[in-house]
Specification:
Radius of gyration: 26 Å
Shape: elongated
Strand content: 15-25%
Structural class: alpha/beta
CATH superfamily of the largest domain: HAD superfamily/HAD-like
Number of strands: 13
Number of helices: 6
CATH topology of the largest domain: Rossmann fold
CATH architecture of the largest domain: 3-Layer(aba) Sandwich
Number of domains: 3
Low-confidence stretches: none
Order of helices and strands: HEHEEEHEHEEEEHEEHEE
Helix content: 25-40%
């Protein structure tokens, strides 16, 4: 293969493999005969030793488009920042802190309480209960614009009981949360609730939860 360029190699292999959906990385610090003709990036340390960390970063940057710079980042918490099975989420939480220190606006949307997130510094906003409850610092701000009235909660409660659904929770008149629901029955229950409550929105959340809320949510 001595004297054969990287482009010639790809053209030859391309007769047998479709490269249309494949991104090719060429080491700009390597031999020019191999990297010329490609979007070359540095993949070696000091131009001598291949650095797998640089290659891994390039792959993730291309696949997840992390080269795009955003000013606002919004995260789910359970099974996103913190796995339900993991004892700690220190690493991911530290990444949120780093975004804050870079001047980015970071938000978390969760069903958990504020005290679960007090460790994250300078969090721009924490939204719970479907986005209706916001914590700005330690100040709890409840938006009642789309909340259920007490009469609506009474009616929803009555109708759920009539359907034989007894395990549910009223979350500050913002959502009626039904849990736990076995995975194989949740779709059936969701369809039933959509028929029973056509004026509201039935939302599937988490792994074992259905919620009834306002249609705007």
């Amino acid at each position: 293969m001595l004297g054969i360029s990287g482009k010639e190699i790809i053209e030859t292999v391309g007769k047998y493999i479709d490269f249309d959906d494949i991104t090719i990385f060429a080491d700009s610090t390597g031999d020019p005969i191999l990297s010329t003709g490609f979007n070359s990036i540095p993949l070696s340390t000091d131009g001598k030793k291949h650095n797998p960390e640089l290659l891994a970063h390039a792959i993730f940057a291309d696949y997840f488009d992390v080269n795009t710079d955003f000013d606002i980042y919004c995260f789910d918490y359970d099974d996103t920042i913190k796995s339900r099975k993991a004892p700690s989420a220190v690493f991911n939480e530290s990444l949120v802190d780093q975004l804050n220190k870079l001047g980015k606006k970071t938000f978390i949307i969760t069903g958990n309480s504020y005290t679960s997130f007090a460790f994250i510094e300078d969090l721009t906003g924490l939204y719970t209960t479907g986005g209706n409850v916001k914590f700005a610092g330690q100040h709890r701000i409840v938006d009642m614009t789309y909340a259920f009235t007490d009469l609506e909660v009474e009616e929803i409660t009555r109708r759920l009981i009539s359907l034989g659904i007894l395990k549910f929770e009223n979350r500050n008149n913002q959502r009626i949360c039904i849990k736990p629901i076995a995975g194989h029955t949740r779709q059936m229950l969701t369809s039933l609730l959509e028929l029973e409550f056509p004026d509201f929105k039935v939302i599937v959340t988490g792994k074992q939860v259905c919620e009834i809320g306002r249609a705007h949510v």
